[in-house]
Design goal:
Elements lengths: L2 H16 L12 E7 L4 E10 L2 E10 L2 H14 L4 H15 L23 H15 L8
Antiparallel strand pairs: 1-2, 2-3
Helix pairs in contact: 1-2, 2-4, 3-4
Bound molecules: zinc ion.
The site of zinc ion has 8 residues, from helix 2.
Amino acid sequence: MTGAVDVLYREIILDHYRMPRNKRRAVEPSVVVRHENPLCGDELDVAVCLEGDVISDASFDGRGCAIAQASASMMTGAVRGATVHDALALVRRVEATVSGEDVDLPGELAALSAVAMFPVRAACARLAWGALAEGLNPMRPTRS
Ligand code: ZN
């Protein structure tokens, strides 16, 4: 990764942290899942509204570090309008990226690859995605 890309990715993450998208208490969500990362003190509630098989709205609330909140902000924007199947596929790609695998992610989500350089932050980046996956697929093991 070049220095310029690294700076861009940091700016994207800071932008989402300072101005989180979809950070609000959900109104009549289909499902709400709280995940916590005690190592960092992150606590996020992820709420999803489902219309059939489509995510009509996604939001989050709670507190967390810059990485956790930025990742949640990006997640809620990325999955709105997606099918459950596509959203779960995206979760797997994000988790692979944060783990350091070379996976192409669309748009600003690519910034999450910067987190792979800081393994201690991976749990922060995964938090909202893990909560989403649990909400969409209750059979899935809950903690990643
Ligand atoms: Zn954190």
